[in-house]
Amino acid sequence: MGKRYFCDYCDRSFQDNLHNRKKHLNGVQHLRAKRVWYDLFRDAAAILQEEQTKKPCRKFLQTGQCDFGSNCRFSHMTEQDLEKLSAQVQGEKRLKELQREGADIPPGTIEDWLDKRAQRLSTAQSNRTGGSIRAPSWFLFGNGFESL
Fold first, then answer.
1. Residues 96, 90: Cα–Cα separation, whole Å
2. What is the pLDDT of residues 130-146, one digit of tens each?
3. How far apart are CA 49 and CA 73, in angstroms?
4. Residue ranges of the C3H1-type domain (predicted)?
5. Is the pTM for the entire model greater than 0.70?
6. Separation CA 73–CA 62 (nearest Å)
7. How many CB atoms lie within 10 A of CB 60?
8. Which of 40, 33, 86, 89 is nearest to 77 (CA)?
């Protein structure tokens, strides 16, 4: 049967040869799926800027549906959606400005949350045990830490 090519954007596979791959990669379905995929990772400011330049889609506003979907050249966002997006962009700008000024704002990563949680648990446990901190045996031996 030969090698098969799997397209992650379109979630389909086909026989891999030059003609088939070229035909697929230049096809409308693939280009639309690729655009939708990359649109998921755009920042709010870029989305807001693009949506503000578009006129509202009459059919989407009247019926709630549009035959063109994500390929429509008109905006499918309501005024409330645009206001929420604008508020989100302003919040992100303020946060960046505060971080540039040197304000002590935690980045909000999972590691930071885990550290804070561990500190909270250790203080709560020390309050219950009268000051001595004792880690459970599963914590000492089950996570790869040789000594604490």
1. 10
2. 555 555 555 545 445 44
3. 14
4. 51-79
5. no
6. 16
7. 19
8. 86
List for the chain the helix, strand, coil content (%; round to 5).
60, 5, 35
The DSSP code sequence of 10-75 is TTEEEE-SHHHHHHHHTSHHHHHHHHHHHHTT--HHHHHHHHHHSPB-HHHHHHS--TTGGG-SSB
What residues does 13 pair with on adjacent strands? Answer: 6
Pair of tokens at residue 33: 């799926």
Place of tokens 């004792």: 134
- Residues present in the chain in total: 148
Angle, helices 79-100 vs 44-53, to 10°: value is 140
Nearest to 123 by CA among 114, 133, 113: 133
